[in-house]
Amino acid sequence: MTASLFHPIRLGELELANRIVVAPMCQYSAIEGCATDWHLMHLGQLAISGAGLLLLEATAIEPEGRITPSDLGLWSDANEAALGRVLQAVRAHAPIRVGVQLSHAGRKASSRVLWEGGSLLRPDEGGWPCLAPSAIAHGAGEPAPLALDSAGLARIREGFVAAALRAARLGLEVIELHAAHGYLLHQFLSPLSNRRDDAYGGPLENRMRYVLEVFEAVRAAVPAGIAVGLRLSASDWVDGGWDLASSVALCGELDRRGCAYVHVSCGGLSPLQAIAVGPGYQVGFAEEIRRHVRMPVIAVGMITQPEQAEAIIAEGRADMVALARAMLYDPRWPWHAAAALGAQVAAPPQYWRCQPSTHKGLFGATRMGQR
User: Fold this and answer.
1) What is the pLDDT of residue 365?
2) Residue 93 near residue 43, CB atoms below 8 Å
């Protein structure tokens, strides 16, 4: 029997060859939102990993929505053309399905890149004013963001739609809305960051409203064959914050609206978070959400070993697993997982001769569900 991790799966109308996802990983290497040769190198190696799906990093829908000045973007013709060049090269040699994570950083925008500390950039340092549901700063000592008015809400919602249409023109097959890790859509969900007194604040139904409106607008704008999903932080890990019960409620609403999948992470909204980190520490969130929805659920969080990933799928705790740091450390992780689990994985013919003698049959031709 083929390992459960290597069974095909459908996200809406899209079929994937296996249950392994290369998670979005910010590279902070774009120029004015435009992909560079770094992205060609980075995505090129991950595209031949044998995973079922490769998700591009958090991609800003407008300049003010960038986490850092070096974030990837998809708000302009120049952004679209630069990413198109990278995707054309990747597709020439890799059959993997490719999607993009669309994002707005909200009050966590205008920051230095991580290897320079990640602190807030002032306007005189190349930064810009941040936007948020409410004028509540993310960290102590930071200036409060500007609270979005109705015109701002409409502009950003249409910005998500415009970026999604650019993604569709580029032939991207999955669009993931980033409502996790403390960025703008997550900020609307959490009572810690959303203190509005209009239809978008207060009770859970109101705090979910903007996220659902953005999802519905994007889903209606792009072709049915494109899978539209959402990444969610299932808990703020702060008393009084967004929690698992609220996540279950949101996912139920998304499921009813035709969401293709939910990608379950946690945290990122508050510096006060107290996260209990360990192998598979977020999988329980995915498992609980999966009990309440029909759409596929992706689990993440210190999933590093093939046997660990296989158990998550085989035991029905999640439908797919996503890897980030583990994939950076070992860009051939799916090859090694297939070898360990007695499965087969797609690999480029130029590399077939590296197949170990102990794992004959490891490499196959293009699998169903891939180009």
Assistant:
1) 56
2) no
Question: Helix, strand or coil for residue 14?
Answer: strand
Cα-based distances in Å from 242 to 90, 182, 246, 274, 297: 38, 11, 7, 13, 19
Query: Quick one: pLDDT at residue 285?
Result: 98
Cα 121 from Cα 33, distance rounded (Å):
17
Q: Is 359 exposed, middle or buried (0-12, 13-18, 19+ CB in 10 A)?
A: middle
Q: Which residue has the tokens 């991609």?
A: 59
Mean pLDDT across the chain: 96
What are residue 231's phi and psi, to 5 degrees? -100, 135
H helical segments located in the chain:
37-47, 77-91, 150-169, 184-189, 204-221, 244-256, 283-290, 306-314, 325-329, 333-341
**Do 82 and 34 contact (CB within 8 A), yes or no?**
yes
The span from the CA of 101 to the CA of 104, in Å, is 10
Cα dihedral 233, 238, 241, 243 sign: positive
With helix as H, strand as E and coil as C, how does 225-266 read? Answer: CCEEEEEEECCCCCCCCCCHHHHHHHHHHHHHCCCCCEEEEC
CA–CA gap between residue 149 and residue 142 (Å, rounded)? 21
Mean pLDDT, residues 293-305: 97
Please state at what angle helix 204-221 crosses helix 244-256, rounded to 10 degrees: 40
Structure-block tokens of residue 77: 């013709």
User: Among residues 122, 251, 118, 132, which one has the least CA distance to residue 182?
Assistant: 132
Q: Which residues are catalytic?
A: 183
Compute the distance between CA of residue 11 and CA of residue 14 in angstroms, rounded to an integer: 5
Burial (Cβ within 10 Å: 0-12, 13-18, ≥19) of residue 240: exposed
Q: Which two tokens stand for residue 259?
A: 């969401």
What amino acid is encoded at 269 in this protein? L
Question: What's the pLDDT at 1?
Answer: 59
Give the CATH number of domain 4-364: 3.20.20.70
Report field, pTM of the whole predicted structure over 0.70: yes
